[in-house]
Amino acid sequence: MISSSVTRPAQPPKTSAPGTLAIVPFVSVDNMMRLVLAIGVERFLVELAGYIEEDFKRWPLFDKTPRVASHSLEGVIELMPTSDGSLYGFKYVNGHPKNTRDGRQTVTAFGVLSDVGSGYPMLLSEMTILTALRTAATSAVAAKYLAPQDACCMALIGNGAQSEFQALAFRALLGTDKLRLYDIDLAASQRCAANLAGLGFDITICGSVQEAVEGAQIITTVTADKQYATILTDNMVGSGVHINAVGGDCPGKTELHRDILLRSGIFVEYTPQTRIEGEIQQLDADHPVTELWQVIADQAPGRTSAQQITLFDSVGFATEDFSALRYIRDQLAATGLYSELDLIADPDEPRDLFGMLLRMQGNIAAH
């Protein structure tokens, strides 16, 4: 049960003291929103980006596997696990593009961070909001190494739930403050513009993808339909741009024309997963790509010329969620923005689990 669902005075999360091993800190949607607002959205994105970048630099330490996915005609449900040897993290996440027709989110998620030494969970958190933040932060981290120098204008194609986070992350990390918005649903672009109004952006709502990409040094595609799509055609992409392809993230779901890929320097998170899910599923299995961690760790070049087209083929990887959970856990002691969840059956005598049940029976009878 949840013994408290309100904000409490700041104190360290109870994770290992005698008598408290059963209690796991839980960050609800309400407390996640309070946490983001208490820190400030852009500061949160910058600090989260720092954790993501730090974990990319120690990439060889992590267990890595393509996410475990269960696909259906309606969408996908996935588990995304990883460990650095000391901590273990996983995220449950779905992707159901048709959900919006029923008033539901396309993507929902929650995650767990655990101690490898004991196997005990240390944190349970909502990750629907947190995934939006970590996706945007990861995009901006990649753009730090791949985007044209002093890029100030971004085309944002697809103005759904992820769009404002992308805009804020790019502004916070790169200073990109000019936005050219396009969505097949004009109301989505209008809502995005309204949400960002007063935050210092120069925003233009465009009538087509072609119009949106004109003059943009960065092109972010973040559409939701689970299908092979051609959001960007080859003629729309000139030399020197950086493409942040976010929407293509499962088998059979892409956003870019194949010819764009053939003209681009392609950067990915984890190649075996991106070959299955990313834009590069359109290419031969041996088509050369560079993993982002190699660039961040200075083991491979990023952008090599002002004329190069760079493409971050982003599908999302478990280390980014691990970084996000680490960041959240580190904010709990100072903020107290969590609840205590009675999650672990932890009898006084570890081998006497049935005795614990009998004692509860006695307590119930006594009352």
UniProtKB/TrEMBL annotation:
It comes from the Bacteria. Pfam families: OCD_Mu_crystall (PF02423). Gene3D superfamilies: NAD(P)-binding Rossmann-like Domain, ornithine cyclodeaminase, domain 1. Belongs to the ornithine cyclodeaminase/mu-crystallin family. NCBIfam families: PRK07589.1. This is Ornithine cyclodeaminase.
